[in-house]
């Protein structure tokens, strides 16, 4: 299946899947900064270079930093600049972020005894998360964690 991802037409691998909002999978994410990255893609046998915004954020569920490549466009840049300015001017205030139209991909990094499965995140849109939505996402995360804990405690019934 073909899909346009970060402005480049890509053949989806069997391990790629789409989600509407990254917060549905990863929960609440705290904005940690962004840079512009140059990427290369092979499109119909030709090497194409393009730019993306590499957005770093902290997953509040597990405290790990992830990087999401976001389509290089004016609307996304405006939102990212606003978030960066907010964090710079008030380091004690957290800025929360979410991503829309996300493609999650998987690949194996390394080899032999040191190989590991890696995830990539590519999004078309970035958006800020206000305090009300942040609270809703946190509640959803707590409910999901509570459901998992209850399932682990229940003995298997036959």
Task: Please give a structural write-up.
The chain is of the alpha+beta class. It has one domain (2-153). The protein has helices at residues 23-26, 74-89, 131-153, and strands spanning 2-5, 8-11, 17-21, 29-43, 46-59, 65-71, 96-109, 116-129. Strands 4-5-6-8-7 form a five-stranded mixed beta barrel. β4 (29-43) and β5 (46-59) form a beta hairpin.
The average pLDDT value, as a whole number, equals 86
Radius of gyration: 18 Å
Terminal Cα span = 42 Å
Q: In percent, how much strand structure appears in the residues?
A: over 45%
Instruction: Give a quick account of the main beta sheet: strands, pairing sense, barrel closure.
Output: 5 strands, mixed, barrel
Q: Strand sequence of the main sheet, in spatial order? A: 4-5-6-8-7
Backbone structural class: alpha+beta
Shape: globular
Helicity range: 25-40%
Total individual domains: 1
Write out key terms for the chains shown.
single chain; 158 residues; alpha+beta; five-stranded mixed β-barrel; two-stranded antiparallel ribbon; 3 helices; 27% helix
Chain-wise SSE layout:
Layout: E1 2-5, E2 8-11, E3 17-21, H1 23-26, E4 29-43, E5 46-59, E6 65-71, H2 74-89, E7 96-109, E8 116-129, H3 131-153
Parallel strand pairs: 6-8
Antiparallel strand pairs: 1-2, 3-7, 4-5, 4-7, 5-6, 7-8
């Amino acid at each position: 299946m073909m899909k346009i991802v970060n402005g480049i037409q890509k053949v989806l691998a069997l391990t790629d899947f789409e989600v509407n909002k990254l917060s549905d999978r990863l929960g609440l994410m705290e904005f940690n900064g962004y840079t512009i990255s140059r990427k290369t893609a092979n499109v119909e046998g030709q090497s194409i270079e393009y730019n993306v915004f590499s957005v770093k954020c902290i997953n509040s569920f597990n405290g790990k930093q992830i990087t999401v490549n976001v389509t290089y466009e004016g609307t996304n840049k405006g939102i990212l600049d606003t978030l960066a300015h907010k964090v710079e001017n008030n380091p004690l205030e957290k800025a929360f972020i979410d991503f829309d139209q996300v493609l999650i991909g998987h690949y194996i990094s390394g080899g032999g005894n040191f190989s590991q499965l890696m995830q990539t995140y590519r999004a078309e849109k970035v958006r800020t998360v206000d305090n009300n939505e942040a609270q809703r996402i946190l509640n959803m995360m707590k409910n999901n964690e509570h459901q998992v804990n209850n399932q682990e405690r229940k003995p298997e019934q036959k």
